[in-house]
């Protein structure tokens, strides 16, 4: 069963100048029971509004929310078994760790002995045992955030909502807390939704990721699915560093080969590896405008000084190496080519230096994508929100 189903959720705010801001724009999302879902998206894409609607802190203008089989669209927050942790969760600074953890339980008028037991349990899970008597002000940022999460945990919610809870912490601590929060989720077996604008955080945390853009969930899938089969240009561009190369042009089948040419130019044609997917080949028989997306690792760069690029096979691109970024096991090569600037990711050791001429070829058919230049849909998958499983 699904823990949460959001159907056609819409929410409009009125801006300061009276303008309308559509924070959620017909959003659809299904969250599985017990899964870790990362809600990823740029700032302003509606992530916090979505979380607030799930928690009942905001009412949607349209659409429905079902939680654990019951409709709760307009139910008050205290009738939803969810707990929420924000980026700047305010703890009670005048209380110690124990009292912060116990606060919600006291409000719910639990017995003293029960409160002690529940707080001590949460302290074990959150590794706060030795800190229960400490004032909040004497804790590190990471410890404070653990208290904030622990405080929601004692309330035993069905669904945990975490809205950028690690954003203010330094990278090492964030990585540490990612593994901790995953362990805790596995231990509790509860549904957890983590909001983030950081793709690495989303990849590290999520069984699945949904990517938001201006109030909609564009795609939901495992991190691998989003990387390997982006249903929209935006997904392909947002996920993966360095970013996917994009070139607009015409795709055509010439003597049973797939050939790409930059729009309006008399420049080179590029022969592409054969791709699975009859749809694109059918369209390409007549010639179709595409936005060609190439992952940096789909390009191989070989040293080669060709006097005239005309002598190169059509499946290769002549380039010059503009810049090399070294990352240890691999390097990113920034290249100048007749198709514009390209980025390639290559394993070390490299046999190339800055300023050198080289040729680029495809390492295979994976990492090559075709998007509709008008609406951004992936032409091989026919991406749409209804494809969500
Ligand atoms: P995110 O969390 O992805 O950064 P938000 O959900 O906070 O995005 O905001 C989505 C859009 O709605 C933004 O343009 C934001 O300015 C606007 N917004 C959010 N809350 C309000 C509000 N209370 N009043 C007016 N505009 C709002
Ligand atoms: Mg936000």
Could you please describe the fold and organization of this structure?
The strands form 4 sheets. The protein has a 6-stranded mixed β-sheet, with helices on both faces. A 5-stranded antiparallel β-sheet has the order 13-12-11-14-20. It has a 5-stranded antiparallel β-sheet with strand order 15-19-16-17-18, with no helix packed on it. It has 2 domains: 2-238, P-loop containing nucleotide triphosphate hydrolases (Rossmann fold, 3-Layer(aba) Sandwich); 245-387, RNA polymerase II/Efflux pump adaptor protein, barrel-sandwich hybrid domain (OB fold (Dihydrolipoamide Acetyltransferase, E2P), Beta Barrel). Residues 383-389 have low confidence and may be disordered. It is 24% helix and 34% strand. By secondary structure, it is of the alpha+beta class. Bound molecules: adenosine-5'-diphosphate and magnesium ion.
Shape estimate: elongated
Bound molecules: adenosine-5'-diphosphate, magnesium ion
Strand order of the largest sheet: 6-7-8-3-9-10
CATH level-two architecture of the largest domain: 3-Layer(aba) Sandwich
Helix content: 10-25%
Query: How many helices in DSSP terms?
Result: 9
Rounded radius of gyration (Å): 25 Å
Number of strands: 20
Beta percentage is 25-35%
In terms of per-residue confidence, which ranges show pLDDT below 50 for 5 or more consecutive residues? Answer: 383-389
Walk me through the topology.
Blueprint: E1 2-14, E2 20-32, E3 36-40, H1 47-55, E4 62-67, E5 70-71, E6 82-85, H2 97-107, H3 112-125, H4 141-153, E7 159-163, H5 171-188, E8 191-196, H6 199-205, E9 208-213, E10 216-221, H7 223-228, H8 233-238, E11 245-254, E12 257-262, E13 269-272, H9 278-286, E14 288-294, E15 299-303, E16 317-326, E17 330-337, E18 340-347, E19 357-362, E20 368-371
Parallel strand pairs: 3-8, 3-9, 6-7, 7-8
Antiparallel strand pairs: 1-2, 1-4, 4-5, 9-10, 11-12, 11-14, 12-13, 14-20, 15-19, 16-17, 16-19, 17-18
Helix pairs in contact: 2-3, 2-4, 3-4
The chain binds adenosine-5'-diphosphate and magnesium ion (MG).
């Amino acid at each position: 069963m699904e823990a949460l189903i959001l159907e056609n959720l819409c929410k409009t705010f009125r801006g300061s100048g009276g303008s309308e801001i559509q924070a959620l724009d017909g959003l659809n999302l299904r969250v599985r029971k017990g899964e870790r879902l990362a809600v990823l998206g740029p700032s302003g894409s509606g992530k916090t509004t979505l979380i607030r609607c799930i928690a009942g802190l905001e009412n949607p203008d349209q659409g429905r929310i079902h939680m654990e089989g019951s409709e709760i669209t307009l139910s008050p927050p205290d009738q939803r078994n969810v707990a929420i942790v924000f980026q700047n969760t305010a703890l009670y600074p005048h209380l110690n760790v124990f009292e912060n953890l116990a606060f919600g339980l006291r409000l719910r008028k639990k017995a003293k002995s029960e409160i002690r037991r529940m707080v001590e349990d949460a302290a074990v899970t959150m590794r706060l045992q030795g800190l229960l008597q400490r004032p909040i002000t004497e804790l590190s940022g990471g410890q404070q955030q653990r208290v904030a999460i622990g405080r929601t945990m004692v309330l035993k919610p069905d669904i945990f909502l975490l809205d950028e809870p690690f954003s203010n912490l330094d990278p090492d601590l964030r990585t540490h807390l990612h593994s901790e929060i995953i362990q805790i989720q596995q231990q509790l077996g509860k549904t957890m939704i983590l909001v983030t604008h950081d793709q690495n955080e989303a990849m590290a945390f999520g069984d699945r990721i949904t990517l938001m853009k201006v109030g909609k969930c564009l795609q939901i899938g495992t991190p691998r699915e989003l990387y390997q089969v982006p249903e929209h240009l935006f997904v392909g561009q947002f996920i993966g560093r360095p970013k996917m190369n994009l070139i607009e042009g015409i795709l055509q089948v010439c003597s049973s080969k797939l050939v790409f040419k930059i729009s309006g130019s008399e420049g080179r044609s590029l022969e592409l590896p054969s791709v699975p997917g009859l749809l694109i080949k059918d369209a390409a028989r007549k010639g179709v405008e595409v936005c060609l997306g190439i992952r940096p690792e789909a390009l191989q760069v070989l040293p080669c000084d060709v006097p005239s690029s005309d002598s190169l096979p059509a499946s290769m691109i002549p380039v010059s190496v503009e810049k090399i970024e070294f990352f240890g096991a691999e390097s990113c090569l920034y290249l100048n080519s007749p198709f514009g600037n390209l980025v390639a990711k290559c394993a070390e050791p490299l046999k190339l230096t800055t300023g050198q001429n080289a040729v680029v070829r495809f390492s295979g058919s994976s990492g090559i994508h075709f998007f509709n230049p008008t609406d951004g849909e992936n032409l091989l998958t026919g991406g749409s929100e209804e494809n969500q499983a």
